[in-house]
Amino acid sequence: MTQSKARLQRYLDDKLETCRSEDVDRRLDELSTLEAALGTEQVATEIEVLSALANETRYTLVRVLVAAGEELCVCELNAVVDVTESGLSHALSQLVDAGLVDGRKDGRWKKYCATNRAITVVTVLEGSVSDE
C-alpha cells in the first residue's frame, strides 16, 4: 500500500466510521489510479523546475532570457542581476540542471538561452497573473 493510500485509509478508519466499506474501497482505488498516473519521475522533474524558479535571481534570469528571445552572454546577464560572478554561475548551473536554460561556449564567452520549458512556464505564469 502506498503512503498516501495508507494515510487515507487511516483517516477513513479514524474519522469516517459511518462510511460504507464499498465507498471506502472505491475511493482507495480511485486514489491509487490517480497516484499511478502522476508518476514519481514526473513529480521529481516538476519539483526541480519549481525549486529552480523559487529564487529571485534565478527567476529573473529566466524571465530575461525568455524576453530576450535569443542567446545572451554571461556579461549581459551579470548586468541584470546583482550577484557575484560565482553566484551567477551557480544560478545558471541550477537553471541548466532544471532544463530551463541551455548554455554553450563561444570562444572565451559563455552564452545562455531559454529552453522551450522555460518559455512555457513563463507564459503560463504570465497568463495566470493577467487572469486575476
What do you see in this structure?
By secondary structure, the protein is mostly helical. It folds into two domains: 3-38, no CATH class; 45-130, Arc Repressor Mutant, subunit A (Orthogonal Bundle), CATH 1.10.10.10. The chain is built from seven helices and three strands; from the N terminus they run H-H-H-H-E-H-H-E-E-H. Strands 1-3-2 form a three-stranded antiparallel beta sheet. Strand 2 (101-106) and strand 3 (109-114) form a beta hairpin. Helix 1 (3-15) packs antiparallel against helix 2 (21-38) and helix 3 packs antiparallel against helix 6 (85-97). The longest helix is centred in the N-terminal third of the chain and has 18 residues, at 21-38.
Report the strand count.
3
The domain tally reads 2
Flag low-confidence runs: none
What does the main sheet amount to?
3 strands, antiparallel
Proportion of residues in helical segments: over 70%
Ends: how far apart? 40 Å
Which architecture name of the largest domain does CATH use?
Orthogonal Bundle
**How large, in whole angstroms, is the Cα Rg?**
22 Å
Q: Indicate the mean pLDDT.
A: 83
Contiguous helical run count = 7
List key phrases describing it:
2 domains; three-stranded antiparallel β-sheet; single chain; 3 strands; mainly alpha; Arc Repressor Mutant, subunit A; 11% strand
Task: Give the SSE map.
Blueprint: H1 3-15, H2 21-38, H3 40-53, H4 56-68, E1 72-73, H5 74-80, H6 85-97, E2 101-106, E3 109-114, H7 116-130
Antiparallel strand pairs: 1-3, 2-3
Could you give a quick summary of the protein structure above?
The protein is mainly α. It is 70% helix and 11% strand.
